[in-house]
Structures are given as C-alpha cells and as structure tokens.
Amino acid sequence: MSAMGDMKRRGVVALGITALVTPLTVALGAAPAQAASCSTQAGPYQKQVEKFLGRPVDGKQSAADCAATKAFQTKHGITPNIGYAGPVTWGVMDLMLKQKAVGKNPNKDGKCPVNKGRIACVNLTLQLSWIQDGKTLVRGPVPVRTGRNGYETRTGLKKIYWRHIDHVSSIYNVPMPYSQFFDGGQAFHSVGVSMWNPPGSHGCVNMTKTEAKAYWSLLKNGDDVYVYGRKPGT
C-alpha cells in the first residue's frame, strides 16, 4: 500500500475511534450535571430560609445553604428539591412558625364552639387540629394536612357519623387507617407523608399515625367536628 493510502487508512481509523469515544465523553460529563442539581441561585426568600434553618443570613446561596434547604425539601416532599429558596419552601416554613406561635392556646380566637362539650376543631388557615371539652384543651394542637385546591375540606359544624379503623379508599385505592368520617367522604385519618407535604389531601384531614390513634381513642360517633378558616393556596 502506498504511503498516501496508509495515511488515509489511519485517518479513517482515527475518525472511527473519535466517534466511539465522543459518546463516552458526553456520558461521563453527565456526572457534573447531576452534581449541579443543587441550585446555585439565591431564591426570593433566601434570607428568610437561611434564618429558619439557622444558617448565616446573608442572602447569598452557598453549597451549605443549598444542602440544608434541599434536605428540608426532601423531608417534606417539596418539589423540585434542588435547594432553591422559593415561595413554596418559604410558605411551608412560614406556616410552621405560625403553628408554633399558637402554643397551647389554639382557640384563642374563640372560633371553635365551647358550648358543645367534646369537639374536634380544625383551623384550615393554620392547618391545626385539636380536641377540646368546653374551654379545656384535651389533645393538641397538632399539624394536619387538609384538602388541596379543588378538593377543599368543607367548613362548618359537623358530626362524626362513621368510623372504620382499617378503611381503604374506594376512590383512590389507598389505605386510610383510623378513619373517622364527618362530612361525606371527608374524614380524619393517618397518612405516611409529612403534614407539610404540598399541595394537600383530597379533602380529608390527614394526621400522623400517633395523632390519628389518639383521636380514635378520644372521639366517637356523634361527636362534633368544627372546621373553619381557609387553607393557604386554596
């Protein structure tokens, strides 16, 4: 073979090797892209989120800020969980602060009736529930997860009319342990997600298993339930 032919042959081989190597290089380049999934941008609520998480409050996104924010988002099912201090993340944190401020006086505004004896109260605005007997606090207040936009938990005075400890939803085919129904298909029941997991339930008042069990032991058919306020975002 001539020298010129040999050079052409080697050129073709080299092109072939390049074609094989290029996809591999692109594939290897995916790792840094995944690592960059933690946002480097400061969000509109950067300072508020930093303060809530006990981070230095400078309004600037750092790797540590992002990691702490992302861990919070992951814990509470906030998506996308990329560590960005956006309105949904701050909305959850702000709600937590308002819930904490209530302390042990959830009916300070006097909106849940105190003339009904034992009654379960649900404040949609603060996403809190408690059981009281007259003016005496029996249980709570505890964070709850109520209906999302389009599936709002209906307000008003109601009564528990049916209880089913091992209920499974016939509509959504999901377990609803410790169900206590008070308005059509709406009930108190436990769930396995965070109480601050957005956007909310399909109308039921979700609780942790511990609280749902406590409500089960404290309430009975015929007991009053009072739901009032308006859930943020509905």
TrEMBL record:
<keyword id="KW-0732">Signal</keyword>
<feature type="active site" description="Nucleophile">
    <location>
        <position position="204"/>
    </location>
</feature>
<comment type="pathway">
    <text>Cell wall biogenesis; peptidoglycan biosynthesis.</text>
</comment>
<feature type="signal peptide">
    <location>
        <begin position="1"/>
        <end position="35"/>
    </location>
</feature>
<dbReference type="Pfam" id="PF03734">
    <property type="entry name" value="YkuD"/>
</dbReference>
<keyword id="KW-0808">Transferase</keyword>
<keyword id="KW-0133">Cell shape</keyword>
<keyword id="KW-0573">Peptidoglycan synthesis</keyword>
<dbReference type="GO" id="GO:0071972">
    <property type="term" value="F:peptidoglycan L,D-transpeptidase activity"/>
</dbReference>
<dbReference type="InterPro" id="IPR038063">
    <property type="entry name" value="Transpep_catalytic_dom"/>
</dbReference>
<keyword id="KW-0961">Cell wall biogenesis/degradation</keyword>
<dbReference type="InterPro" id="IPR005490">
    <property type="entry name" value="LD_TPept_cat_dom"/>
</dbReference>
<dbReference type="GO" id="GO:0008360">
    <property type="term" value="P:regulation of cell shape"/>
</dbReference>
<dbReference type="GO" id="GO:0016740">
    <property type="term" value="F:transferase activity"/>
</dbReference>
<feature type="active site" description="Proton donor/acceptor">
    <location>
        <position position="189"/>
    </location>
</feature>
<dbReference type="GO" id="GO:0071555">
    <property type="term" value="P:cell wall organization"/>
</dbReference>
<dbReference type="InterPro" id="IPR050979">
    <property type="entry name" value="LD-transpeptidase"/>
</dbReference>
<dbReference type="GO" id="GO:0018104">
    <property type="term" value="P:peptidoglycan-protein cross-linking"/>
</dbReference>
<dbReference type="GO" id="GO:0005576">
    <property type="term" value="C:extracellular region"/>
</dbReference>
<protein>
    <submittedName>
        <fullName>Murein L,D-transpeptidase</fullName>
    </submittedName>
</protein>
<feature type="domain" description="L,D-TPase catalytic">
    <location>
        <begin position="117"/>
        <end position="228"/>
    </location>
</feature>
